[in-house]
Specification:
mainly alpha
Length: 166
């Protein structure tokens, strides 16, 4: 287990180093990136391609599950304030990442639930959702809030819930 955690820390440090040159950008994405999903959600529902409430069930259930897992695992976060100066307004445990979980739920739900009128629009929306999901997930590593395994577990959990409720 120690070897695995050491590998996780090493990989996290390496990935974090790629974002050091644009840390302010990653802080912005870490704090505001989820609003992009809300915008797409409003747009898709507003166009009548899905009912606005459809993503709520997997979103809420995945969030409750991740809070339970965090309470069981109790993995402490890194000293992100020292690493990047990033400030959080709620303190929770690190594993799994809530932003990664909810990004995956919303990316999959907003890509797979709506009835898009054509394949081109579907491709554009899926591309935007994928990009936004990757930006949010990497931002959590870049600002030092999560380890790589935290975001991978969050992505898996979110994907599981989105697909389960299709």
């Amino acid at each position: 287990m120690k070897r695995f955690l050491s590998l996780d820390r090493t990989l996290t440090e390496r990935l974090r180093s790629y974002g050091k040159g644009s840390l302010e950008f990653w802080k912005f994405i870490a704090s505001k990136g989820m609003l992009g999903f809300v915008g797409i959600w409003i747009g898709v529902a507003g166009m009548g391609w899905m009912m606005w409430w459809e993503p709520l069930v997997p979103l809420v259930l995945s969030y409750v599950t991740l809070l339970i897992v965090q309470a069981i695992v109790k993995r402490e976060r890194q000293n992100f304030e020292k690493i990047s100066g990033y400030k959080m307004w709620i303190r929770t445990y690190s594993f799994p990442s809530g932003h990664s979980t909810e990004s995956a739920v919303l990316a999959f739900a907003l890509a797979l639930y709506p009835a898009y009128p054509d394949a081109v629009l579907f491709s554009v929306v899926c591309g935007l959702l994928s990009l936004l999901c990757l930006l949010v997930v990497y931002s959590r590593i870049a600002v030092g809030v999560h380890y790589v395994t935290d975001v991978i577990a969050g992505l898996c959990l979110g994907t599981l819930y989105a697909v389960a409720f299709m």
